[in-house]
Design a protein that fits this description.
The complex is a heterodimer of chains A (508) and B (356).
Chain A: H1 2-14, H2 23-31, E1 36-39, H3 48-56, E2 60-64, H4 68-81, E3 86-89, H5 95-103, E4 110-113, H6 115-118, H7 121-128, E5 132-137, H8 157-163, E6 169-173, H9 178-188, E7 194-197, E8 205-211, H10 215-228, E9 233-236, H11 240-253, E10 258-261, H12 267-278, E11 284-287, E12 302-305, H13 312-319, E13 329-335, H14 341-350, H15 355-365, H16 373-380, H17 384-396, E14 400-401, E15 404-405, H18 409-442, H19 447-452, H20 493-500, H21 504-507
Parallel strand pairs in A: 1-6, 1-7, 2-4, 2-5, 3-4, 5-6, 8-13, 9-11, 9-12, 10-11, 12-13
Antiparallel strand pairs in A: 14-15
Chain B: H1 2-13, H2 19-27, H3 32-40, H4 55-67, E1 71-73, E2 79-81, H5 83-91, H6 102-127, H7 140-151, H8 158-171, H9 175-184, H10 195-202, H11 206-226, H12 232-235, H13 249-259, H14 264-271, H15 275-288, H16 300-313, H17 318-324, H18 331-341
Antiparallel strand pairs in B: 1-2
Helix pairs in contact in B: 1-5, 2-4, 3-15, 6-7, 6-11, 9-11, 10-11, 13-15, 15-18, 16-18
The chains are: A alpha/beta (508), B mainly alpha (356).
């Protein structure tokens, strides 16, 4: 009864003829009002699991998503497809836009909201008036303290769910190890959620890690690989500057289109680079982790890591962008011993050092309430995420209550100890994650087995040469596809103008 | 082009302002000081033509001008044009063809550009029956404008006329400007290129790419504005653009109080601002509005005195004027007279007429 109708809806609204693995199963349970935990590998289309139900249920679907850029991208794409009654509430909206949106919120079927917005009393108030028929938590691993990307705004989600009338909950993630899955359910107070957990290994990807002496060797290696095979390729960097630098070098050295992409670029240029890559007008993109969210390009054949990420979870997500069409693809990590320092630095920017706790309490002694977050960063010399961590700890230990500082000698000394312990735990956790990643790079057995070991039991057989341990040699890889379609020849402006305006046949 | 614009500014300012002052002007800082500078040195055309220009890049560009011996820095660390720079400026096409009219149009140009880009994308993709493209312009008000045109069926026959209008306008520009402008356009299934890509391909700086495209837009905007009947498709992008006189809103409030007969001191009390700030507002008004009467702030004789000294010394440096006038007049009075004297000159040498 349900099935043919679902297919029809899928086709009508999204233009797909088939569900991908896991989508239909999740949607069916969601439509029956069940609480569902869905773990689907990147690239499978997690978002469809609530986008389609949002059209088929009577009320509003509320989606909490931690990444504003992802949220905005999805709204754009949905609108482009003709799904109009969708909106993203986020902190980038100016006052006027936000008021206008809030005033007509009940006209939207699908509402994306960032977790920090949920804490905003004005928004909270409006949300309570909605008839919410599905509550979705995207990137649900952020809920878990033991998740790799713990976000303090994600706590108290159970209270929010209660306030909007306890609708069915759908928690989605691409990377959540079993202990994190358990924690997600616990935090949401929904221990009976139905599991839909799908293996995240990619049978069509080959792995290789190469060790080099210097940065220059890595660059030379990239030039060599790109020149040997012209393929849609992503190269990941952990700094904007190196992404720009290498892109420029490659542009000079190769007869291919190379561009860089990072969060510091002008809005229109970001969009242009994304679109060029999507339409095969670019061969290579040198990017930071800011790229990729919401970019669903099917034919990426190579993902190269010029810098390796701080944790296996990010790595899995990043290589998940390759080979979405199911055809062979490869991941190559280029490593120099020096590269270890970068992830360490990134981690230090994320978590405070212990000395910051003393600084913090000294500050609290002289104040009666917290200042706005930006001023707290400034006064205590903390990064945004360092401050978020400490602020959350202060709330948990009841040193602050609704931004007011509660002074109590005994409470404070206990709190200090508690925070120190939690901070150490967090540091240990981060270090463990980092070592897990680095150990994988140095691992001498089958990389595929080792990579997915923390997440699932065993892996499916590889459809391609498995990894450098199992005999994969990147220079021999057959990743070639048919001649790329979008190669642009540069004509003079009047010819290009004619092409843009589709005037070629008229005046030639 | 960036070099030529900087040199042009430096020439007009003859060592009386720093690079930061010039940056503020080009970037379009809406402070009384910057607005006054633009008028004083007759550099209105460059006001606000490059809102995203960073201070750092302005300084870098000045350093490179110094290395090329185009400019040197005087004792106050203000840039002064050197002979090499003067020669370069004379040879640059900016001296003959300059369509910038920043003070008057810089804000409209921003809107014009966004509308034009989205219009081109929408018209060409409609022709391809592709209605699921990602709009290249994200500004919600521009998207709403586009939707309105679309709903009212305005764009259905626009393809050819838009093409022809752009083709004719681009033909009148330099080859380089036409290249950059077209390569940056998105439409008909082609994705535009980033500023960095264009800079790389044409061996230009990113600033040159930005300014050359901007210059092309100024030309298109002004030509369309003055001859709307010849450019009906482009003229759609002009909808509702009022030419507001440029003045800070704080200054506008001060003016309203003045018009109601309050003295400067009254306004100081009322607005709880410093006297110097209120005086800045008055000078700003004198600069921008030719009909603004400065008679209630300085006597006719005083005006004459200051004007004569201004003409003999031929400088805009207040300190020099102040001293030459034996401290008989305060800085506020001198600035007022200098400001209103600027209206006696008419300028805008090579621009197309914008009256129609």
């Amino acid at each position: 009864m349900l099935r043919p109708r679902l297919h029809e809806q899928l086709n009508n609204h999204f233009g797909f003829s088939e569900f991908r693995e896991g989508q239909k199963e999740i949607i069916e349970d969601v439509l029956q009002g069940q609480d569902v935990l869905g773990i689907l590998p990147t690239g499978v289309g997690k978002s469809l699991c609530y986008q389609l139900p949002s059209l088929l249920t009577h009320g509003t679907t509320l989606v909490v998503s931690p990444l504003i850029s992802l949220m905005v991208d999805q709204v754009k794409q949905l609108k482009a497809k003709g799904y109009k009654s969708v909106i993203a509430l986020n902190s980038f909206m100016d006052y006027r836009e936000r008021t206008a949106a809030l005033n007509q919120l009940n006209n939207y079927r699908l509402i994306y909201v960032s977790p920090e917005m949920l804490q905003n009393p004005k928004i909270e108030k409006v949300l309570h008036t909605l008839d919410v028929s599905l509550f979705v938590i995207d990137e649900a691993h952020c809920i878990s303290q033991w998740g790799h990307e713990f976000r303090t705004d994600y706590l108290k989600m159970d209270q929010v769910i209660e306030k909007v009338g306890n609708p069915p909950v759908l928690a989605l993630s691409a990377t959540a190890a079993p202990d994190v899955q358990k924690d997600i359910k616990k935090q949401l107070g929904r221990t009976n959620m139905i599991d839909h957990i799908y293996p995240m290994d990619k049978p069509n990807i080959s792995f290789a890690v190469e060790f080099h002496e210097h940065q220059d060797d890595k660059k030379a290696r990239i030039r060599h690989m790109l020149a040997a095979q012209r393929l849609p390729t992503m190269i990941y960097f952990s700094s904007r500057q190196s992404a720009e630098l290498v892109a420029e070098e490659l542009n000079i050295a190769l007869d291919q289109r190379v561009a860089f992409y990072h969060g510091g670029m002008e809005q229109m240029d970001r969009l242009l680079v994304q679109q060029q890559f999507m339409k095969d007008q670019l061969d290579v993109i040198c990017c930071t982790s800011a790229f990729g969210m919401g970019v669903d390009k099917p034919n990426i054949r190579r993902v190269i890591h010029y810098h390796f990420p701080t944790q296996v979870e990010s790595y899995i997500q990043e290589i998940g962008r390759a080979g979405r069409d199911g055809k062979p693809c490869a991941s190559i990590v280029l490593y120099t011993p020096h590269d270890q320092l970068l992830p360490k630095m990134l981690m230090e920017r994320e978590l405070p050092e212990e000395a910051a706790i003393e600084r913090l309490f000294a500050w609290l002694t002289n104040h009666s309430a917290l200042l706005p977050d930006e001023e707290m960063h400034e006064q205590l010399q903390l990064s945004e995420s360092q401050w978020n961590f400490l602020k959350y700890q202060l709330e948990e230990t009841q040193v602050i209550f609704q931004n007011t500082i509660m002074f109590d000698v005994e409470l404070w000394s206990k709190a200090k100890m508690q925070i120190r312990t939690n901070l150490r735990k967090r540091w240990n956790y981060k270090n463990e994650k980092f070592h897990q990643m680095r150990d994988w790079l140095y691992f001498t057995g089958c990389r595929r087995l080792k990579l997915y070991e923390p997440f699932q039991e065993g892996v499916r057989d590889a459809e391609v040469d498995c990894c450098d341990h199992c005999g994969f040699i990147i220079d021999d890889a057959q990743l070639m596809e048919e001649e790329a379609a979008g190669v642009i020849t540069h004509n003079s402006w009047d010819v290009r103008l004619k092409r843009i305006f589709l005037q070629e046949s008229i005046n030639e | 082009m960036f070099a030529a614009i900087l040199l042009d500014c430096i020439q007009s300012i003859h060592g009386e302002r720093s690079i930061s002052g010039i940056h503020n002007l080009i970037q379009g800082k809406k402070s009384s000081q910057t607005l006054q500078d633009a008028r004083l040195y007759k550099l209105e055309r460059y006001f606000g033509i490059y809102p995203s220009l960073s201070k750092l890049n302005a300084h870098k560009a000045a350093e490179s001008l110094e290395r090329r011996n185009f400019i040197r820095f005087n004792q106050e660390n203000h840039p002064v044009l050197a002979d090499e720079g003067e020669k370069y400026l004379e040879d640059s096409f900016m001296k003959d063809v300059n369509f910038f009219s920043g003070m008057e149009h810089h804000r409209n140009i921003i809107l014009f550009e966004k509308r034009l880009r989205l219009l081109i994308q929408t018209v060409t993709h409609s022709e391809l029956k592709d209605f699921s493209f990602l709009p290249i312009v994200e500004d919600p008000s521009v998207q709403a404008w586009m939707k309105r045109l679309y709903r009212n069926n305005v764009i259905s026959d626009l393809l050819t006329s838009l093409y022809e209008e752009l083709n004719s306008l681009l033909s009148a520009l330099s080859h380089l400007e036409a290249e950059l402008f077209t390569r940056r356009l998105t439409g008909g299934g082609l994705i535009g290129e980033t500023r960095e890509q264009l800079a790389h391909d044409y061996h230009l700086s990113v600033e040159d790419v930005d300014l050359l495209i901007k210059h092309a837009l100024f030309y298109m905007y002004r030509t369309t504005l003055s001859r709307q009947e010849n450019y009906p498709a482009l003229a759609l992008c002009l909808e509702g653009m009022a030419n507001e006189k440029l003045i800070t809103s704080s200054a506008r409030q001060t003016l309203q109080w003045l018009n109601r007969g309050l003295s400067l001191e009254d306004i100081v009390k009322k607005r709880r601002l410093k006297l110097s700030t209120i005086q800045d507002h008055v000078v700003e008004a004198a600069l921008i509005d030719p009909s603004f009467d400065i008679g209630s702030f300085i006597s006719k004789e005083g005006q004459k005195d200051i004007l004569t000294t201004l003409e003999t010394l031929n400088t805009n440096k207040l300190k020099k004027l102040f001293e030459a006038l034996d401290h008989n007049y305060n800085y506020f009075e001198i600035r007022l007279v200098v400001a209103s004297s600027k209206h006696t000159f008419k300028e805008d040498r090579h621009a197309p007429s914008s009256t129609s």
